[in-house]
Prior knowledge:
The structure holds 2 protein chains of 2 kinds. By secondary structure, chain A is mainly alpha-helical. Chain A is 59% helix and 5% strand. Chain A has helices at 2-23, 33-53, 58-75, 83-97, 131-136, 140-155, 158-170, 191-207, 213-229, 236-249, 258-272, and strands spanning 107-111, 119-122, 126-130. Chain A has a 3-stranded mixed sheet with strand order 1-3-2. The longest helix of chain A is centred in the N-terminal third of the chain and has 22 residues, at 2-23. Chain A is globular. The mean pLDDT of chain A is 81. Among the domains of chain B are: 145-234; 399-538, no CATH class; 561-669, no CATH class; 672-789, no CATH class. Chain B is elongated, with a radius of gyration of 52 Å. In chain B, the strands form 2 sheets. In chain B, strands 1-2 form a two-stranded antiparallel sheet. In chain B, strands 3-4 form a two-stranded antiparallel sheet. Chain B is mainly α. Chain B has helices spanning 2-63, 137-167, 175-196, 203-226, 236-255, 260-276, 282-301, 304-329, 338-358, 364-387, 395-410, 413-418, 420-441, 446-463, 467-497, 505-528, 536-560, 563-584, 587-609, 620-640, 647-669, 672-693, 696-713, 726-730, 733-752, 768-788, 794-812, 815-836, 847-860, 862-867, 881-886, 890-908, 912-932, 935-959, 963-986, 988-994; strands at 85-86, 89-90, 614-615, 618-619. Chain B contains 36 helices and 4 strands. Chains A and B meet through helix 1, helix 2, helix 8, helix 10 and helix 11 of A and helix 21, helix 22, helix 25 and helix 28 of B.
Amino acid sequence: MKRGIALLLLFSAAGLAFYYSSRHNAQSSVGPEAILNVVADTEREISRVPLRLTRLSDQGEIRIGDAMARAYLNRNPAGADEDALAHYIATVGATVAGRARRKLPYRFHYIADPSLVNAFALPGGHVFIGEGLLRLMDTEDELASVLGHELEHIDNYHCAERVQLQARLRHVPLSGLVQLPAEIFMAGYSKDQELEADRDGTAVAVMAGYSPSGALHLFEKLGKLHRAYVLKAGNPDQELSQVAIEGIIGYFRSHPLPEEREQQVREMILENHWPERKERALRFRPKPFESAR
Amino acid sequence: MEYIFIFLLGWVVLCLPALIYSAVIEGRRRRDVKQLDDQIRSLVNQIDLLERRTRTTQAPAHNEPATAPATSIPPRLRPTPQPVEVAGIPLIPPRPQPASPTPASPPIAAEARVQPPAPPALRSDTIPAAQPRSAKKSAALEETVGTNWLPKLGITILVVGVGLFVGSQWSSFTPWLRVLLLYAAAFAGLAGGIFLQRKDQFRVLGRALIGGGWAVLALVTYAIGNIPGVVVVQSATADLFLLLLAVGVMVWHTLRYESQLVTGAAFLLGFVAIGLNPEPPYNLIAGVIVVAGLTVIVLRRRWFELEVFGILAAYLNHSYWLYSIYERQGGWSPFPQLNSSLALVIAYWALFRISYLVRKIADERQESVSTISGLLNPVLFLAVMRYQAFHPELAFYALLIMGAVEFSLGQLGVSRQRKAPFYVLSSLGAALMAAALPFRFSGSALEVLWLAGAEAFLLAGVFTRERLFRGFGLIISLLVAGYALVVRVGPLAQQISEGRSHSDLQLSLLLAVIAIIVYANAHLTRHLWAEIFDHDEEHLAQSVLSYFGSILAAAAIFAAVPDKAAGIALALLGVLLNFAARKLAISEFNVQAHWISAVAFIQTAVAGSAADAGWHSVPQRVLMFVPAAALFYLGSHLVRTSRTWKPDISAAGYSWAATVLLGWLAWYQLPPLEVSLAWGVFGLALFEIGYAQKPEHLRIQGYAALVASFVHLFYSNFNTRAFGGWAKVLGTPAVVTVLPLNAIFYWVYARTVNRGQSGAIQAPAKTTVEFLLACLGTAAVASLVRFEVTPEIVVVGYALLTVALLATAWRTRQEIFLYQTLAMLAVTAFRISMHNFYYLHEQFTSSLTSAVWAIGILAAGVPLSFKLRGNEQERPSSTNWGKVLAHHLEQPMFFVPVVLMVVLLWLKLSGGMVTLAWGVEALVVFLFALWAKERSFRWAGLGLLVLCVGKLIFHDAWYFDDVRVRYLTWIGVGALLLLVSYLYGRNREALREYL
């Protein structure tokens, strides 16, 4: 009898859960993000102490970063007719970098590649932003939030720790780390690190006088892109293949979803009572695409 | 010319089976005669010997005085050989009976003795002379080759050569001269043969010459009307009459030799002649005449084997004539002589049927041969009628009528008197009438007719107890089934594999009918007449038939129903087979059910994967998967109680298939968020049913479903977003869907756990499953905390979970929860130290608050851990550190928060405040240790105090420039030391007791 009642309660609870889920039309993405997040975060937590103990000196980090940046810029030279835009970006970046904790020679580079919808940082203070990502922006506040996010990866030693990890994984002495490709810094960091960079990056941008709404608007745009272009599995077969593919290639791509990043910034705005500031439009933009003749 | 030889060759090939059969029968007859003859000779010799001995014994008594009474030896009774009749020929006439012997009769004079008669002379033209027993085998073989094979081979080659000669160009001879010469050669052969065959040593040669002579005669008679170069008769009709005349004379002549083979060859030539002159209506008339003549001879001579050959020849000849007509007119279509042809074929059937009914049968072998012709006649009749049938809509009525006629003939008095015709014709009639309906609706498929013939043979074999007929019936059934598999099922399978439309109701009906009949032949006959079907070969054939039947039945389903319903139909068939297997104890049905159910599973899965549409708002996939799964579960139940190989494994296979289908359905139909919960509920249901019904495989499936639901959480439920405070956490989709699942995990664990009587902590259950289930529940909660709350607050959730596990261990007395507590404690400590402590400097996070709360909650669990301590006797004595720690949880539960607090204070405070804070902590620890009466705790407190003192002396005194901080620190630490000392003094007695 008791067992029957208990079973009935269990089934009733399950039924209520089904009802609630259907009523709220809850959506979830199918993929290995959860597991990847846990693995990446756990790896970071395990390696935190050893990395702290073997941390690069600032000089060492700058030297390695300069070499990497040189090599990358040789392969991807900036366009000659985009000097004004590059200078503009560097100016905004310098404003934001003035609020960083670590006093490094931060440098900001513009990559004139419309397919590069990304920004990344190299050790020692180099921040790169791609033309594709810039084309998504409308305001200088959005640019500041992105530059702040990337320089906080440097400020919080994320780039330096990535270099240390790669040296250990590839059995390469530190002197040989200049050969590391810049692409390993494009893949993103763990979820914790990304959220940390979001927090600190937004904070430094706000401290530099920009509106936190810039970050919010940019995350909204990224969210739309994510929903539009990221393949959503329509049936179990597609789910399985998506899990397999993302599991293979997504080990370091533990980006939090745009909604999560947006939520964090909103909470920061509420908790810190940041004032609502008017956003400034971008003063320089990438040149429009040439129309076909 | 080649045409003629091809035609002749074709005839020989077609008629070869009949000829061989006749030759075999003939040979057997001769062998039997020879054996009888030898036996008779042997007996006669023995009688002679005995009589000589008797005479020798009686001779001395004959010369003595007649004082002593003569011992009279009564003459022995001579064996009276019974007349033996082979093929209607009496071999040994009855011998006169000897006089009855009288006792004490006087010695019989030698001359008065009845001389043993010489063995009767056997008919020399039928029985070859008995060879001496001492003839060596090699000599016999050589003789056989020389006197038997060589003549036959030689005359055959000679006749072929003459045929080639006939067709060649004779530039210097007129046609009449050529004809005369050829006829002269033919008659010379005949005369020579007749002369030579009278001599015993040239008998075979002589007959060969006779046969060759007649063959040449017939060939020339045909050639005079048809072959260029020797044509002297312009009218084909006249040529036909001449041919028939020649054949008639030949038949009359061969009758003299009392040989079915020879007479059969003559008739063969007659049919050949008709076939070579297909000019209606004369060939039709000639056909009737030849068949009538053959029938008369068969009845009079009782040469029933010859009739079999005649039936074959008649119908095949007519088929060839039809073929030539269709060739001429360029296609299969009605022709002017259709009605005459129909009448002729019916006449054939009638003649042979009358012959079958009115004949006199002497023994069982003759009856068997008659049955063959009795069945061959209607079968070939139907085949030929089908070949010239242009109104398929009438076939149904034709079969009914023919069936009725045959059945009626079987009821006649003359049939019932002999019994075999009653059985055969009744079975045949019934089979034909039963085949009429499926034949009509299957598109006039020939397989139906063949099966009707097979049934007739089979039933004839049953009722006449003739194994040969049963064998024919089974073989024809196998052939029909094999034919259907290749010709019907093969293309159907190809259509299915290529995804083309394959719905064909006619084909389905045909295959279903064949399957039913095949199954009946395989099992019903064996069930009804088990004592008759007692040979291994028959069992093997029936077994193969049964498997063919299953393939045909499955193919019928594929042809009848759409792909989306085929799986259900096949599953239903599987259930029926399993039911039949259990009811009738037929293991073959189980095997068939297994493979059909496997196909049903694959079909359902494949078709269901693409079934996205709905039917009256019910998803098609649901309509497919649910019934199929129900049938598989039913099949599992049936198999479990049947006599199949490894019934438990088979039953598990069925239920696994059903479970996989239902799980798959849930995966497809439900939103990703609800899939895990659905699998969890399903797993619970399977577990409970398995627990109640005892089949282990259901419980295992339940476990599998629960594990799958847990794994799926990480791919779906934990990907939802609930980034916020507690109020939002409680209502997130992940929490709502995971918590009931968690309850299910723990419930199933509780049901499987082994509970002790004393209430002491029980060792973890031996089975991995129980251990896994317990861990699944805890892991689900821990994962929920990990993914659903803010990263900094995770430690608070972990700490709460640790204490909850501790409480559970205390409440349930299950050791597994002690281990889980230990594990969660370690995870919490790791998270606090590696995450929260790392972000203590972050002003935008709650790392500090969360860390403090977590440490506090862990500390609050220490009193509870004391309740789990129990007494010393209950604690296991083991060197396993994990086990020791689990049974001394109060130690890690105490030390972990203490150490964490020490580190936190060090990270967060600075300067002398660290020392003071440590001192305060040491005091708190000491007070707690006094309350807990735990020595290790007291030592921890003392240790902290020592650390404070050490830091004070070796660090603070040298590095703090602020004087105020310095003295405050020294005062504070000093006061704490005094206080602790006071506490020691106050509790000295108690401490001594515990020391």
